[in-house]
Amino acid sequence: MSEGTWSGAVAGCQAGDTGAPGRDNALKLINLYRWLAGLPAVGHDAGLNAKAQQCALMMHANGQLSHDPPMQWDCYSADGAQAAKNSNISSTPGVVAVDLYMVDPGNPTTFGHRRWILSNGFGPVGLGSTAVNSCMWVIGGQGGGDAAWTAWPPPGVVPIDAIHVPEVPWANVDETGWTIQSDAIDLGAAQVTIREGGVDLPVKTTALMGGFGSASAIAMTPQGWTSEAGKTYTVEVNGVPQPFSYDVQVVACP
To answer: Which stretches make up the SCP domain (predicted)?
Structure first.
């Protein structure tokens, strides 16, 4: 999917804007992931977009990422700093960043990027991108989701490309971990079993930090196995007031 063309420049600290295809494609990808997870679509907000654009410029100008950029940074702005505190931030342009956030490598205690995108309260979103960096305003949303719990990969039919994402070849969801998040259920003591063909598959279950898009969450990391198209994985969650289970049917899309 096209990233669009950035109209700004680090020289002169010109934030510019993301070309329409880039911002539109990032939003489409966000809403595709949310649709797969059974969540309502979100829109973007022009004011948040502008602040996220300043954030992306700051990351680009300084060659690093920070949620708390110092005032001494090149191209510093109050709007950009505010966005940095409230955003997923990436060392990639805005479209591929959505895929990267959903895989979420390097965040084993929170999976915060993924959880914000899949949160009930997410949206409207702010999207800003240069040719190098991007910011996605995620905090403080007023979204209308009411899911009791949300899993990734989700129940139902799931494309293998949503787990082993071609645009993120250096990591995948099986390596980083499957997740379940909830605002209504305390998952801290949850016990998870994943089965395929009636056989228990080894999995490591980890309670995640609260906040970051949901009050409670767990990660379930496959141990020595990976998802395969054509197979159905049954996830059973016990150790919660009302145990639940769901099937993940992995398919290859033509």
So the answer is: 27-128
pTM score over 0.85:
yes
Contact partners, residue 119, CB within 8 Å, separation at least 6:
138, 141, 143, 145, 150, 181, 213, 214
Q: Give dist(CA 111, CA 106) in Å, integer.
A: 8
Six-digit token string for 110? 């929170």
**Could you tell me which of 220, 225, 237 has the C-alpha nearest to residue 152?**
220
As a whole number of angstroms, the distance between CA 19 and CA 110 comes to 32
Which among 244, 174, 177, 240 is positioned nearest to 208, based on CA atoms? 177
Torsional sign, CA 119, 125, 126, 128 = positive
172-190 residue pLDDT tens:
999 999 999 999 999 999 9
Number of H helices, E strands in the chain: 6, 12
